[in-house]
Design brief:
Largest sheet: 7 strands, mixed
Order of helices and strands: EHEHEEHHEEE
Structural class: alpha/beta
Distance between the termini: 5 Å
Number of strands: 7
Radius of gyration: 14 Å
């Protein structure tokens, strides 16, 4: 089934993030495929807000590669940014499989850089920036 969520503007982010979380069901491994500036981190921040993560805790993990957040329910979630990785082995060096095998939500930016080690069950989500400045989030399950 194909899912499409349109984010009209920044004021629409929380609604879109809530809808996204409802529609992904039990999927815990989420990979955002999108070009630079399309809103991957901004959308991830909105998802974190919906899960009750303290907003000042959320930032792009570009330099850390992974940030760990605690949701309002006490569960851990992980936010990866693989932009700076040159080889999938670098993800393995940070314990990538330990994170994704944890059963916790894992949101990944720039998964293209580690695509060959992404588990089959990873939900591949695209974010497209539209000419009217809206964003389209889509995936198939």
């Amino acid at each position: 089934m194909k899912h499409i969520i349109t984010i009209k503007d920044l004021n629409d982010l929380d609604r879109a993030a809530k809808q996204f979380l409802e529609e992904i069901g039990d999927n815990k491994l989420i990979a955002f495929f999108a070009p630079m500036g399309s809103g991957k981190t901004t959308f991830t921040t909105a998802i974190c807000r919906q899960l009750g993560v303290e907003e000042d805790a959320v930032s792009s993990p570009t330099f850390a590669i992974v940030n760990e957040y605690r949701t309002a329910s006490g569960e851990m979630m992980y936010h990866f940014d693989f932009y700076r990785l040159n080889r999938p082995e670098e993800a393995l060096d940070i314990g990538f499989y330990d994170y994704i095998d944890s059963g916790n939500l894992c949101i990944m930016e720039w998964p293209e850089n580690i695509e060959e080690i992404l588990p089959e069950e990873t939900l591949r989500v695209s974010i497209t920036a539209n000419p009217d400045l809206s964003r389209t989030v889509c995936w198939e399950d």
